[in-house]
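Quick one - first record:
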Amino acid sequence: MFNNKPQIASPAAGEDLVRARSFRSLWSGAAAVLAVAAGVAAAAPGADASSRLAVCPPSQAQPADPAHGGILFGVSVVSSCSAWAVGLQTLSGGSSRTLIERWNGHSWRIVASPNPQALDDSLSAVAASSPKNAWAAGAYGSMAGQRTLMVRWNGRAWRRIASPSPGLSSLLAAVASTRAGDAWAVGSFDTSSAAKTLTEWWNGHAWQRIPSPSPANIENTLSGVAIVSPADVWAVGSTGGAGTGHALIEHWNGHAWRQVTSPSLAGNNELLGVTAISAGNVWAVGAQETSTRTETLIEHWNGHAWRVIASPSPGTMENILAGVDAFSLASIWAVGYTSNGERQTLIEHWNGHAWRRVASQNPGGPANFNYLAAVSGTSCANLWAVGHFAVGATGTPIAARC
């Protein structure tokens, strides 16, 4: 069921978890406009938002819409007047280019971004530690030979930075950074026989590949990463074989990446995003299959073990959480989509006691595909969620601000 190789997923595709599996592995042609991706954002301290829960409406300042459509996969908020969102924009010939948009406190504007091939280029995640320092990660190239793509904002422009691209095909799905300069990116790469996890570390001068576990002999991928400290980093994804897949959790202890036991669940399941508040408080989100539908999956690290925490699954067919961010012990947000046949945005909030669904709008209308891929903020009053809606074969970037 789980397929780590780059593939296309569309709203008309089959009703199973394989779409969640391919959220971040979508870099091919016009059909990629209909793809969905997972996001991750670094945790940030802030105030409790439980008293502010109502509706997270689309912001009046929506992202700029490229001429032939686009999708936002990742977001990172620096302040109330500085945020970045990344993804892809489609071209008239059916290929894609990287898309980077900047929030200046008043509006979203497209910013020039590197495109190594200008063929099938995309950015899946962004992490900004200051107004003058941000990383964005993704992939470029064709389905026959995808390579990792890493770009950096230096306060004036986005520049491509060399990154390892092992295997026959490779991609970066998530990136996290700190104000101290520490940065990690994760993803996957293909060999002739298997898909393996990929972890890369910024050593202050260059991106360096660091070995990481790939426990299954067929499919292994990492979709999210969060940094607690230089010796405490978490990565999540999935591992499995043909037709099967289970959540994969790995931890960096300052010396090596090690697999950490995740809760045993009956059906296929996967983690797509992770955020860390402290060494003893880490959250991960994704999806799990049951006999009748796909349900949201939220897991929590308490300093000793990972446990599944109950979360709403309002849709009768699909419920998937792709991104998560935390401001405090009692204010954590997760986003994705839910479906009773038509996919609609899904926002959930942890108030310190339980996860609750928060009402959210669907700019594409009830009959079209609406999806939130990532969430980030500095406080409950400065929170952005981004994604896209699709009408036919055209994707349009969207943003919600709470």
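second record:
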Amino acid sequence: MAKTPPAAPAAPTADTPTDGAPVAPTTAPEAPAAPAAPAADAKPVKVKIEREKQNGQTKPAEGTLTRKLWDIIDGISAKNAAPATRKEVMEAAAAAVPPFNTAMSASLYSHWRKFHGLTGTSAPGRTAKPEGETPAAPAAPEAPVAPVVEGETPAVPEAPVAPVVPEAPTA
């Protein structure tokens, strides 16, 4: 194996003077490396959207199907200058493209009313009940009473008895 000759001393450059004193570099320092591009399989970052809350209800986020129905209800209410009725909302929801599910429309209408602090019924010609007031129960019709003859015990109808079903044997 052949021996390699020792390396020659480094030649002076513009950054190192020949007398040994330090000199400022003549080239600009390197810029910091750009952040690496996100990996293709990285999960997107979810941004928390602050939504309006009142009366225990949260207003739906912009661009959602729920918000679309709330906007329809708001439009009906603005047009009538009064809260939209359930009938108007259900008709508008059925006419929307694509149409809303009936149960979803009814549920969202209920949440919209609670959000706006509306209680009671919204039917025209009927007034909403003040909060805390319950309607009186209608009087029950009187049942006919059989005449009682002195000395006789009034007949009491027997209560119906459910048939007894034998249990199936267990294996």
